[in-house]
Design goal:
The protein has 325 residues and is an alpha+beta fold. The protein has three helices and 15 strands. Strands 3, 4, 6, 7, 8, 10, 11 and 12 form an eight-stranded mixed β-sheet that branches. The protein starts with a helix and ends with a helix.
Length: 325
């Protein structure tokens, strides 16, 4: 009776060990497989279908004439011209002065075509018009249907520094609204210097020395340079570079050469594929369909240990029976 019970117990232990090892092997394989083969998205964009896009037909207009021709003239600073296309919204005219003697006072008036150009006082302040003469200056703006006018005055007994480099004497920003390529408009900007006096500081009083004061322009007239042998003066004017790039030779007709670019179709961009993260512990060698899966090594070791224990118990019981007999 005892032998049968032991045999039954041994069979039960063996069956339980085999089943337990199989379940652990299968579950462990499934968990490892699912954890190692789960795709991980690294740096990939979310999946989205990108439909083909057709760009509209583009038309590049090359005008044979500029939309606006500007001439900036002055009785003291010379002249400069520029041509602008219909996309130009503003341009700047800057008058520069450098003198071996510093400026004592000046008075000038600038007249422009208000039918084509606008002067915004917010863009043209005392500081922006002439930073060197901000303190001690005043500016006023007038405008009607035909002409606009800027009047500027500045005086300082301590003198304005214009002796070290080419310094801004007057800088005006003009708005050019409603330009079209259909017709060429011509605008004139005229800076008339009425008074321009230079001098040197008296070392005792630190103000202008009366015997050093020289008029460069008086009552709108230029003073003869020959009378100012000890004075060096340079004056120039600059304007924003022309934006009109056509060949304006005067013989062309006011037609426009139009170049048409056909519509372009842009193909949808495929999103990048997700990157698969591979577990370094997993064997990535291709498996043969005929291979037998024996599970993990520790499962086999557990089963072997249980078999050894059961065999040892049976051997002891067997020797005990023989001894008793």
């Amino acid at each position: 009776m005892l032998k049968r019970a032991l045999c039954f117990l041994f069979s039960l232990i063996m069956t339980t060990s085999i089943l337990f090892g199989s379940v652990l092997s299968v579950n462990g394989e499934e968990l490892t497989e699912s954890a190692s083969t789960a795709p991980a998205v690294s740096g990939a964009a979310e999946e989205a279908e990108t439909a083909a896009t057709t760009l509209p037909e583009a038309t590049v207009s090359t005008a044979l004439f500029p939309a606006l021709s500007v001439s900036a003239i002055s009785n003291y600073f010379g002249r400069v011209d520029a041509d602008y296309n219909e996309y130009t919204s503003e341009f700047t005219i800057t008058f520069y002065l450098k003198s071996s003697k510093n400026v004592l006072s000046t008075n000038w008036t600038l007249v422009y075509d208000s039918a084509l150009l606008n002067v915004d006082p917010e863009k043209n302040t005392k500081l922006s018009i002439c930073p060197a003469m901000d303190k001690g200056s005043s500016v006023s703006f007038e405008q009607d249907d035909k002409n606009g006018k800027i009047t500027y005055n500045a005086t300082s007994l301590n003198l304005f520094d214009f002796s070290t480099q080419d310094t801004v004497f007057a800088k005006i920003v003009f708005d050019a609204p409603n330009l079209t390529a259909a017709d060429t408009e011509t605008a004139k900007v005229d800076l008339s210097v009425d008074e321009l006096w230079v001098s040197e500081l008296d070392p005792l009083t630190a103000i202008s020395a009366l015997d050093k004061e020289i008029a460069l322009v008086s009552k709108g007239d230029l003073v003869e340079r020959q009378r100012k042998k000890d004075l060096s003066v340079s004056a120039r004017v600059e304007i924003t570079h022309s934006t009109f790039t056509g060949d304006f030779n005067g013989a062309a007709t006011k037609d426009e050469a139009v170049t048409t670019v056909p519509p372009t179709t842009v193909k949808p961009t495929e999103p990048p594929k997700p990157t698969e993260v591979v577990d370094p512990k997993k064997d990535v060698t291709p498996k043969d369909d005929n291979d037998v899966n024996t599970g993990e090594w520790y499962i086999a070791l557990l089963i072997l240990a249980m078999l050894i224990v059961c065999s040892t118990i049976l051997l002891i019981l067997r020797k005990r029976d023989i001894y008793n007999d």
